[in-house]
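Practice problem: predict the structure.
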Amino acid sequence: MSELDRLDEALREPRLVTLTGVGGVGKSRLALQAADRVRAAGGRTVAWADLWPLPDDRLLTATVADALDFSDHTAIDPVEALGRWLRDREHLLVLDSCEHVTHGCRDLVDRLLRASPGLTVLATSREPLGLTGERVVEVEPLPAETDAVRLLRDRAAALGAGLDAPADLLAAGRLCRWLQGIPLAVELVAGNLAEQSIEEVERALLSRLDIAADRGAGPPRHRAVRTTVGWSHELCTPTERLLWARLSVFRGPVDAGTVRAVCGGGPLTPPVLADALRGLERRSVLSVRGGRHRMLDTVREYGRMWLDELGESPELSERHARYFLEQARRADAGWLGPDQTHWYRWTEDAHPDLCAAVDHWLATRSGAAVELTGLLGFFWSCCGHLPEAASYLEEALTLPGAPGPARVRALWALGVAHVLRGDIRSASDLAEACRREAEQEGDADGRLRAAYLAGLIHLLTGRPMAAGHTADAGLARAAGAVTPGAMMCRLVRVFALTGQGFLDRAREEAESLRADCVAIGEWWTRAYTDYQLALVSLFQDRPRQAVAYARSMLDGKRRIGDGFGLALGLDVLAAALAAEGSAGPAAEAYAAGETLWGSVGHPQRGTPELGPVRVHYESTVRSVLGDEEYESVMLRSMVREPEEVLAELLGSAGRE
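Answer:
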């Protein structure tokens, strides 16, 4: 029975299986293959959580929730909320690289397994988690005489260094035996065959392995990995070694532009850095996927050690944090324009390193910490990182100093996070604090943001008239300004008019706001304006228009990655489809919406006028289809991925 077959069998009964073994032995590779088999078999959803970017277990629960597509919008304990959501679901959760957060993983996995009978966890770690019922599977290296040699030949061939001669094959076999068949060691060796013959590689590496063995530097497999990594490091050019060390500052995959900005300087001029980057890729020190560079844990640990030896760790951490702060400023400046969706995607891709930058500023400079968390808070709240946003903002705002517009922004962002988590009382206090400090600072857009936050609270608590007055008062002082705060206040006014039943005025205001959003290429405000136009169209018996606007709203929210907005949009699309007479698609939309509402941790929400719309049209769909067919459509739709259902419901409509 193959190693993969044994793991496949192990995953059928135990609810916790941990793959152990030395770094570089292939634990992640085997877990990925097992996950692919489970996914292909169907019946269980597979979620993969990369834990290697985490410096500690502070963001462990949030990282696992992200992997499970759970965007926690609750104010309860995050692990409890996640457990509730998983309770009736069948999931395989893969936790990759647990060894540096073993204690946190042990507690998290224990609580999730107790709360979620349908959950199975597959962990990879250099040591077991130590939980009752855990099945530990030690991952063996590749067979040295067969699979390891095949891997070496394949990697060498990719570099144009064929190993076909009998003498080459014999040398490859000897090398793979010395390397204990460990895939990482084999790949690092292969990475140097473009510049050296296999005989030269063998002589150089075996002499080092002999020395390591004489010194008793741990078990043979550990020696093979450490020695090969060290030997690969020595074979690098000085600039490649310097870049290797500097790259260890990153927590997540990064593109070449980010590498240049953070790791350049000194001897690493742009052309030299580009050559060094290509050299590290060729030597298998770096892997590249989708134009983004990543180091394996073992290789990154070695680089971090050398960064410390060079005395550059403090400087590189500072440079890294400065770069991501500057990028966050650019993201904020680009929010109200055609680059908005790009910056939403960027904040998602750069999430591990943005967290690293926040951690750095929290420990070193309170002003920068407040500024960065304030700039990121709204992006994160929209895209499913509410717990991190709230936690970081709360910590930053407790630091001394940091007055001014940066603090106003942070107060506002925390207030928005509390609204989305349903904590209206705290949000109200923050809205008032934001308004007061914006007045003191003369921060015009801060005043508008505070008005938006207060107006949003009024809307959600059923006071549309108060929301309208608050937005109007804020806009009256803005003198026609086109700022994010002004656009948000205009949006509140549209919601308020709809909530009061002034539908013609609401449509007129919404169409004007939408036209302005289209003109500047902005999507967040436009999507919620489309949502209001869909509701108004429903109330005015214009179902075809309602469907078009609802689809456009969903298209915008999908571009941004706003799960809460998608859930709202699916509700209104379902109602519009029902009004149009498309009962089957309406039921599918309701089912996908229920799945998304579950993924944010609470029942359906929205402004009060949406509730009766849901009840009326869901009842209409059920009566048209009949109870049995309605439940059948709902069940079929709910077991599918919401994104798949959403793509079908949208088709090519609603796009401009």
